[in-house]
Amino acid sequence: xxxxxxxxxxxxxxxxxxxxxxxxxxxxxxxxxxxxxxxxxxxxxxxxxxxxxxxxxxxxxxxxxxxxxxxxxxx
Length: 75
What we know:
This protein has four helices and no strands.
């Protein structure tokens, strides 16, 4: 699983040439420079990127848990 995610990052970082085409992960990575990292901007961007995923999980939490427990076996 990690290898697939890493390969997607490498492909996205190589194939995107303009700022409009970059994925969120590549955008966050490119905020790091040789001089240093602007941590305030980096954390604000990470929060903005993760908020929709968190909101979707909170809306569908019951369905996720029902799906996880549907296949559970009881002995």
